[in-house]
Amino acid sequence: MAWFKKVRKPIEPQAKKESRVPEGLWVKCPSCGEVIYNKDLAATLSVCPKCGHHFRIGAIERLRTLFDSEWVEYDIDLRSTDPLTFVDTKPYRKRLESTIASTGMKDAVVCATGSIEGIETSVAAMEYTFIGGSMGVVVGEKITRAIERAIARRLPVVIVASSGGARMMEGALSLMQMAKISGALARLDRARLPYVSVLTDPTTGGVTASFAMLGDVNIAEPKALIGFAGPRVIEQTIRQKLPDGFQRSEFLLDHGMLDMVVDRREMKATIARVLRFGLRSAHGTAAIALPAEQPEPAER
Ligand SMILES: [Zn+2]
User: Fold this and answer.
1) 46: CA distance to ligand 1 center in Å?
2) Cys-Cys crosslink for 79: which of 100, 106, 125, 226, Cβ 3.0 to 4.6 Å?
3) Could you give the C-alpha distances from 27 to 60, 147, 221, 225, 269, in angstroms and in order?
4) pLDDT for res 65
């Protein structure tokens, strides 16, 4: 029975081959499998040139796709105080510290003013890599301030949502942000200033249930996951199988939940068109001074 006692030589570890391609130069599209050169992907605003798959992008990259040039960022140093001294798999305070260190941001939203095709705009862009883009007290406060800043300076507002919803580590305090932001948006509406909501993959939970669906115009990126509760929870509750494409942008557009589904490469031009249209009051006079070189919007 020699083969029972056969001594197996451990497999020699392979000598590490030097890769000639530096790490991270190429990205594989998860939708069509195309291998894309990083620089090409940056040129197409992180949209797959072959199939149009929209890669997720961060808040700073988002601002770069929207603003004409430089922007002014506000409330950079606001950070959560961990009011509930919350602990799950690790203390929330520790989680915050490590996320701040890895992302270089203090919380999950970047608020800035800058111009979009010459129109000065207050923009808030959410950062999904910061604890799932979750909305805690800081996100709520920063977005509210961005809206109030817009009211004070008579600017339109654009909020780019990318979020898993409310931040459970701040409990009820994070739920209160829904009402706080919605209240500020109501004041913006009374000041007759337009608000464009941009919904990107993913926009779920308390963010969908508040400001992301309150835009004068709600625009989504293609195939973005947008919903309140997850599909499994809904199936268990209503005891029905959900249709294909449920909770994706195109499905929501078909069912009247969105106004437009717009390719990221067309997003800036579309937002600018909507803002130009919205900045005119019902009497046909501009609510604020528009840049002269912009063409007049077609009256509908
Ligand atoms: Zn692709």
Assistant:
1) 10
2) 106
3) 20, 37, 20, 22, 27
4) 97
How does residue 282 score in pLDDT terms, banded at 50, 70 and 90? Answer: very low
Query: Exposed, middle or buried by CB within 10 Å (0-12, 13-18, 19+), for 59?
Result: buried
Mean pLDDT throughout 15-44? 82
**What's the CA-to-centroid distance between 47 and ligand 1, angstroms?**
8
pLDDT band at 300 (very low <50, low <70, confident <90, very high): low
For residue 264, report the distance from its CA to the centre of ligand 1, in Å. Answer: 14
CA gyration radius, the chain: 23
Mean pLDDT of 61-83: 97
- 51 CA distance to ligand 1 middle (Å): 4
Å from CA of 45 to ligand 1 middle: 13
Peptide bond into 202 cis (omega under 30): yes
Whether the per-residue pLDDT at 127 is higher than 50: the answer is yes
Using alpha carbons, select from 277, 126, 100, 268 the residue that is nearest to residue 199. 126
pLDDT at 290: 67
Mean of all residue pLDDT scores within the chain: 91
Distance 28 CA to ligand 1 centre (A): 8
**Separation of CA 62 and ligand 1 centre (Å):** 20
